[in-house]
Amino acid sequence: MLTRIDHIGIACFDLDRTVEFYRSTYGFEVFHSEVNEEQGVREAMLRINGTDDGGASYLQLLEPVREDSTVAKWLAKNGEGVHHIAFGTADVDADAAEIRGKGVRVLYDEPRKGSMGSRITFLHPKDCGGVLTELVTAATGAHAEHAEQTEH
Ligand code: CMX
Ligand code: CO
């Protein structure tokens, strides 16, 4: 099942300014950045612990790239802040199916593309006590190398 906090998603209006806040205040550097067109975001992943043993967690700083994106809608309503949490799992398909069986709405029929070649899905915040919850299976092996080459 779910084995760790993969990341915390933080919505912001200005990604560069927010990256600079996390760098100058805490010393966190950008580990990876990309635009996820499907999700409508430009994002920076800041690795905040772990080494190269697969145990790292991230802050995922998110800036909307479209006015009709979910993050733009959320920012307009709430202002900047914590947008979602994400649990890491070795098998997002199996965990999503199991959680769906418990009556929690899983937003996607099939996991979609997330940061760094990962596969992601979301649980509806109204079924999770007001917390938008993401499940993530990180890319491994050839997938991870592909993500390194194409998305940095
Ligand atoms: N956390 C907690 N509650 C949230 C929320 C969030 N991030 N987003 C929406 N809600 C709540 C709203 O406050 C609203 O509650 P009320 O009815 O009580 O006001 C309700 O959910 C419906 O919200 P909405 O503004 O009408 O938004 P939608 O229903 O259109 O969309 C959701 C909500 C969760 C389906 C949509 O945000 C979604 O599909 N999210 C998953 C994708 C995503 O967030 N992508 C960006 C991150 C990408 C990444 O992590 O890689
Ligand atoms: Co996320």
From TrEMBL:
Q: What is its EC number?
A: 5.1.99.1
Tell me any Pfam family this protein matches.
Answer: Glyoxalase_4
Alphabetical UniProt keywords = Isomerase, Metal-binding
- Nucleotide-binding as UniProt keyword: no
Q: Where is the VOC domain?
A: 4-138
Which biological processes are named by the entry's GO terms? L-methylmalonyl-CoA metabolic process
Which protein is depicted? Methylmalonyl-CoA epimerase
Q: List the gene name.
A: mce
* UniProt record similarity statement: Belongs to the methylmalonyl-CoA epimerase family.
Q: Which organism is it from?
A: Peterkaempfera bronchialis
GO MF annotations in UniProt = metal ion binding; methylmalonyl-CoA epimerase activity
